[in-house]
Automatic annotation (TrEMBL), chain A:
Zinc is among the record's keywords: no
Subcellular localization: Cell membrane
Tree of life domain: Bacteria
Name of the protein in its database record: Sodium:proton antiporter
Principal location listed in the UniProt entry: membrane
Family: Belongs to the CPA3 antiporters (TC 2.A.63) subunit C family.
Keywords: Cell membrane, Membrane, Transmembrane, Transmembrane helix
Membrane topology label: Multi-pass membrane protein
Annotated organism of origin: Nocardioides cremeus
Transmembrane feature ranges: 6-24, 31-50, 70-91
UniProtKB/TrEMBL annotation, chain B:
Species whose genome carries this gene: Nocardioides cremeus
Main subcellular localisation: membrane
Domain NADH:quinone oxidoreductase/Mrp antiporter transmembrane: residue ranges: 125-401
Membrane topology: Multi-pass membrane protein
Pfam families: MbhD (PF13244), MbhE (PF20501), MnhB (PF04039), Proton_antipo_M (PF00361), Proton_antipo_N (PF00662)
Lineage summary: Bacteria, Bacillati, Actinomycetota, Actinomycetes, Propionibacteriales
Protein name: DUF4040 family protein
């Protein structure tokens, strides 16, 4: 019995639902939820039975969590920040973030 | 001077061009020309060694794992081309000073010198990979030089690039085949390989590939159209391109490989037939032109055709002819091109039909052009006569039955007759025919002398052609021939002499009836030009590409997002079920969950549902923030304090950035239709279940991993840091972190690039929203609460509290940031978290301002990003002092054990801070077109229920 997979399932489901919506801001929100889910998957791969802080000299090393997935997740969080900010900038380009309507930029969008 | 120093010095010249053009403007051409001449002089000792029969080499390891070397070799052939590139380059650079308009002309000087570098690198390369790289440099440099010549040149430059890159690809293919077959990337070893005699079929394939590559650069049929196209470039560019650089690169390639291919029938047949056809065809085209520059361009195509045919014949005499004609052509064609520029400057036109009778006002130019065209037409005693006659004579040696040689001679003769005719057309059209010149004046010395010098050099060289005996002999020997054919002005009554005489006589006779001839020939013989054909190919390729792209392309992201998600659902879901079906799954570890997980699950689930269902953007943001905080707590609960801290800071900043963006967008989300929402729900449910199932099945079923045990037991000992997550980030896996920094930096740069290049005003008018404006705004004046009204109307007093807070909290946060940074190695903290804490100060500064303004100086954010990435890279390079890139170095300063990974962490800090500043400066500042207020939450009125945005000034302006 474990809880983390359910949490991950909920986050992924919410993320996917938002990803399928029209509107870039909702898509960004979806990506945020998906990244939360993905980060928890990474941490789960370190096995959530060991939950001590991986700090030498603090607590019992036998209880410490796997530091490697944590480093991955830390990197992932910052990359998510970069991607989120970039996509938000894109959402701001037009007067609306609706992804069904292509704003007229003078470029040819369709073949 | 060794070869490598020549190349290093040549590479330094473009770098020097930047400050020089800044200081001297267009006069930078003089010192640059001087640099070329000095380099040519410095090469004299090496040249002497080559002329004495030796060769100069230099080698260094480049890609040792692939056996690719930075190998340079100068033999006789290389020497000829190096000298052409440097000396003609110097003349052209001097000429450019007077020819170009006022101004810095940085692009011109930069790419011209890069061009020379590429050319010299090409002819000195003794490694196939290096050869290919230099080949592409000349392609790119010529493209850039043509492209910078105004709007008319854009399509011409694209066509040039297309042709030369096609040739580049065939060369690449040939290089790969050669390397695979001969087992070496060394050019000289590959050429001397036995493969060429042992495998005739393979040899034929490679020979054709090399020939095609050579044809594209040397503008041989059917790749010739780019060269007349390229005359859209400035005249000095054309002079260099036609005489010494790109096209000569094609000739060089064919000459270099003739050592291996001169006995291959398909090589002989292809080069001779294409060369002679091109020579005659282009000579006819040249005769049709009345633009002198265009005429010259076709003339180059024609002359190169003759050289190509001679290389195809491949005998000693023919190769001698090819080399000597390459030299002669470099001299007269560079000079003639520059003389066309002289005429253009003097008369304001280069159209033969409009040029007045210039010989009286420009007698020296007249004489120079007469000499140059005489050399081109092959009239004694010019060098062009010697070379042309040798080519004609060598045609009789064409391999195969005797009639082949006779036919080749006849074809070359036909081309030469037309050459005489168009050469005469230049002289007669430019200087003799036409009305009496009134307003023209002669050229300045600075323009005339560099143009005339190469042409005049052809006279003594023709008379004393024996001075070229040794260099030409060495060049021909470099191609595997025993010795060169002896060059003489007078060879006795050889067949070629009669042909030469006949060619000149017929050409001259034709020109006596030139008016009738012009009328007959100056018409379109063909329905379209090569450029048109190429444009049609482009259009067709574009059409096909769009049709292919149509199957997958969509402006709506759903089409890109849904298929991978469906596949992921199937793989994960079906895969998990299959694993369960097999049944051999290890048991889960005990204690995988704690009670707090359940509470967090409930909070997260509520937040996710609220985020999905919210109709208002602000409400969804609040719910999303809630989920973020719950996830943060979950991270702490999993024993990951660093990750938790990072997530917390990121969460705060993300929400602030979202609010910055939301105030420029409609208040509510657009709605999708029921059917689509149903589909999304099914997919979301499916992938959610699959993800949960997969996680449950595939994690938590083993002991702590080996790496974890290693880091936990050895990590601190190796690095001296107690915080294992941080030491993994900045030491063990610093390369990952460096890659992440690059992503971060790129995102920041991309935001700046996108938002500065797409002004909102250029997009459609606002208003295309399905229901965004349905909720009416309440006018501020109607607000009953005087405090609320005052808060909205007066931004300044509204912000007092925030400003006071900042005064206290700002310094505290900055100190905290420094502490967190410093302690990162041993306790939760480090560059990421510290930078995010500092970012909160940036956010505070921004929010406490009454108007939307950038937080720091204009380009501070880009400087931080760039500086951060460079700092991290530099700390990585320090690692080479020990063993490898990013290897940390340790030292003890004042009793504290320090590591260079601290420098790396400073880079991380700066880059993260830079990205956040980009977000505030670019997303927070009011767009220049002022359209932000058109239908945003900050418009004239306030939203019911929703918080007001920081854009208070806009509110004030609207109302005031």
């Amino acid at each position: 019995m474990t809880v983390l997979p359910i949490t991950i399932g909920v986050l992924v489901a919410g993320g996917v639902y938002l990803l399928c919506q029209p509107g870039l801001v909702r898509i960004v929100f979806g990506i945020t939820l998906l990244s939360h889910g993905a980060n928890l998957v990474l941490l789960a791969s370190g096995v959530s039975a060991w939950r001590g802080e991986p700090l030498t000299g603090v607590g019992d090393p036998a209880e410490a969590g796997d530091p490697l997935p944590m480093a991955f997740v830390l990197t992932a969080i910052v990359i998510t920040l970069a991607v989120t900010v970039f996509m938000l900038a894109l959402a701001r380009i037009g007067h609306d973030d609706d992804t069904r309507h292509v704003p007229d930029t003078g470029e040819d969008h369709h073949a | 001077m060794t070869l490598v120093w020549l190349l290093v010095a040549l590479a330094a010249v473009p770098v020097l061009a930047v400050p020089l053009t800044g200081a001297l403007q267009r006069r930078a051409g003089w010192p640059l020309a001087l640099a070329f001449l000095a380099l040519a002089a410095a090469m004299v000792p090496s040249a002497r060694e080559v002329l004495d029969g030796g060769e100069v080499t230099w080698t260094a390891a480049w890609l040792p794992a692939l056996d690719v070397e930075l190998a340079l070799r100068m033999d006789g052939l290389g020497l000829v081309f190096v000298m052409i590139a440097l000396l003609i380059g110097a003349a052209v650079l001097v000429y450019s000073v007077e020819y170009l308009g006022e101004g810095r002309q940085l692009g011109f000087y930069l790419w011209m010198t890069v061009f020379a570098l590429g050319m010299v690198g090409l002819v000195l390369a003794d490694d196939l990979v290096l050869l290919f790289a230099c080949w592409e440099i000349t392609s790119l440099a010529s493209f850039l030089l043509i492209a910078r010549s105004g709007s008319g040149a854009e399509s011409a430059s694209a066509r040039t690039l297309f042709m030369t890159f096609f040739g580049g690809l065939t060369l690449l293919l040939a290089v790969v085949l050669m390397v695979v077959a001969t087992g070496t990337t060394s050019l000289s070893q590959a050429l001397a390989s036995d493969v060429w005699t042992e495998r005739p079929g393979f040899t034929a394939v490679v020979a054709v590939l090399v020939a095609v590559a050579g044809f594209t650069k040397a503008a041989q049929f059917p790749f010739h159209p780019w060269l007349p196209d390229a005359m859209a470039a400035a005249t000095p560019v054309s002079a260099y391109l036609h005489a010494a650089a790109v096209v000569k690169a094609g000739i060089y390639l064919m000459l270099r490989f003739s050592e291996a291919f001169s006995e291959v029938p398909v090589w002989n047949a292809l080069l001779i037939s294409v060369g002679l056809f091109t020579a005659a065809m282009a000579a006819l085209f040249a005769f049709q032109q009345h633009d002198l520059k265009r005429l010259m361009a076709y003339s180059t195509v024609s002359q190169l055709g003759l050289i190509t045919a001679a290389i195809g014949v491949g005998t000693e005499k023919a190769l001698t002819a090819a080399v000597i004609h390459t030299i002669a052509h470099a001299l007269f064609k560079s000079g003639l091109f520059m003389m066309v520029g002289v005429i253009d400057h003097a008369a304001g036109t280069r159209d033969i039909r409009r040029l007045p009778e210039l010989r009286r006002v420009m007698p020296w130019s007249f004489a120079t052009v007469v000499l140059g065209t005489a050399s081109m037409a092959g009239i004694p005693p010019m060098l062009g006569f010697v070379s042309k006659e040798t080519i004609l004579g060598s045609m009789l040696e064409a391999p195969g039955p005797a009639w082949v040689g006779v036919l080749a001679l006849a074809a070359a003769g036909l081309g030469s007759v037309l050459t005489v005719a168009y050469s005469a057309k230049i002289v007669l059209g430019g200087f003799v025919d036409g009305e009496r010149a009134k307003t023209c004046h002669g050229p300045s010395a600075g323009l005339f002398l560099p143009a005339a010098a190469p042409i005049w050099a052809g006279l003594p060289l023709g008379l004393a052609v024996w001075v070229l005996d040794v260099p030409v002999e060495r060049a021909v020997q470099a191609m595997g021939a025993e010795s060169a054919y002896e060059l003489k002005l007078w060879h006795g009554l050889a067949p070629e002499l009669f042909v030469s005489a006949a060619v000149i006589a017929v050409g001259a006779a034709l020109m006596t009836r030139r008016r009738a001839l012009y009328r007959r020939l100056e018409v379109d013989l063909l329905p379209g030009t090569g450029a048109d054909a190429l444009e049609r190919i482009f259009a067709a390729a574009g059409h096909v590409g769009r049709r292919i792209a149509w199957t997958v392309a969509a402006d709506h992201p759903r089409r890109h997002v849904v298929p991978p998600l469906v596949v992921l659902t199937l793989v994960l879901g079906v895969g998990s079920l299959a694993v369960l079906g097999v049944g051999d799954v290890p048991a889960t570890q005990p204690d995988l969950w704690r009670p707090i997980d359940v509470g967090l699950l409930v909070l997260i689930a509520l937040g996710v549902v609220a985020t999905c269902l919210a109709d208002s953007r602000v409400a969804a943001t609040v719910a999303l923030g809630g989920v973020g905080i719950a996830v943060t707590v979950q991270l702490f609960a999993l024993g990951a304090p660093d990750v938790g801290l990072t997530q917390l800071m990121v969460e705060v900043l993300t929400v602030v950035v979202i609010m910055l963006v939301l105030r420029q967008l409609p208040r509510r989300f657009g709605r999708s239709n029921i059917r689509r929402r149903g589909g999304a729900l099914v997919l979301a449910g499916g992938l959610g279940v699959a993800a949960g199932l997969g996680t449950w099945l595939l994690t938590g079923r083993r002991e702590r991993s080996g790496p974890a045990e290693y880091y936990l037991s050895e990590g601190t000992e190796v690095t001296g840091g107690d915080n294992l997550v941080n030491v993994i980030l900045v030491e063990f896996r610093a390369l990952d972190t460096l890659g992440e920094l690059a992503v971060l930096g790129l995102a920041g740069v991309a935001i700046v690039a996108v938002l500065t290049t797409i002004p909102r005003a250029a997009l459609d008018p606002p208003g295309w929203t399905d229901r965004a404006e349905r909720i009416p705004l309440r006018p501020v004046a109607a607000l009953r609460d005087p405090q609320a009204r005052a808060a909205l109307l007066d931004a300044q007093s509204n912000l007092r509290a925030l400003q006071l807070l900042l005064r206290v909290v700002g310094p505290v946060l900055l100190v905290l940031s420094a502490v967190i940074f410093w302690r990162g190695h041993n306790a939760p903290g480090g560059g990421f978290i510290a930078a995010l804490v500092a970012s909160v100060v940036v956010a505070q500064v921004y929010l406490a301002r009454p108007e939307d303004r950038a937080v720091g100086p204009a380009r501070l954010h880009l400087a931080l990003i760039g500086g951060g990435v460079l700092t991290a890279l530099a700390s990585g390079l320090l690692g080479y002092a020990d063993s490898s890139f990013l290897q940390p170095l340790y030292g003890t300063v004042a009793g504290t054990k320090l590591s260079t990974s601290l420098v790396f962490d400073i880079g991380v800090y700066a880059a993260v801070l830079g990205l956040v500043m980009v977000a505030f400066d670019r997303l927070g500042a009011t767009p220049p077109d002022g359209s932000a207020t058109e239908h945003t939450t900050g418009g004239p009125g306030i939203l019911e229920g929703a918080a007001s945005s920081p854009a208070t000034t806009e509110t004030k302006e609207e109302i005031g």
